Predict the structure of Phospholipid methyltransferase.
Amino acid sequence: MLNKFHSQLHNHMRFFSAFLKYPRIIGSVAPSSSFLTNEMFKFVNWHKTNTIVELGAGTGVFTERINTCKSSQCTAMIFEFDNHLRGNLQDRFKELFFYSNAKLLMTTLKQNNISSVDVIISGLPFTNFSNQETSEILYNVHQTLRSGGLFVAFQYYPTIYTQLNQVFNQVTMSHIKLNFPPAFVYTCYK
Ligand SMILES: C[S@@+](CC[C@H](N)C(=O)[O-])C[C@H]1O[C@@H](n2cnc3c(N)ncnc32)[C@H](O)[C@@H]1O
């Protein structure tokens, strides 16, 4: 119990110091809550998930859920831009595969001979990206998801809804108040 508290406190400090260094890229002052994490994974069918991708892992709250719930045959590919945060995740989750830039999603999958992905979970701070950067990443996401595949993203503002609607067949939005700051969760199907 005390160990868990210490490691959570450590992760909060690590996250906040990354935010102080690169506020635009990190995009938040604290890791996501367990309430937001539950909502992000609500529709993931772990039995049917052979490949899962996480974009913008931070200190690993979603990564931890992936590591716990995925089947042993499922490949998990985790993208985190910050070298220090990524290095720490690599030390903690030895069976997952780590990469830097979410913009290289398509290229990375090709290099690993993976033709499509079942689920993509995103913590990327799209609000801080230019329209072009967001479009580029959403194009990568859409191209790599299998037909009927699931994309789940959260944001602190409801601004990305229109862009997601242009790309995906079905988009629904929910609001999680028990998070700092409160967040909108977008669940999208290709
Ligand atoms: C708001 S934090 C979310 C972290 C974590 N998923 C959570 O919910 O607590 C966004 C994360 O996305 C990462 N990030 C930003 N741009 C990225 C990119 N182009 N590729 C990969 N990661 C990126 C940041 O370094 C940061 O760790």
Notes: Helices lie at 2-21, 23-26, 34-40, 61-69, 83-92, 105-111, 131-144, 161-167. Residues 25-28, 31-32, 55-58, 61-62, 79-82, 85, 101-103, 123-125 surround S-adenosylmethionine (CB under 6 Å).
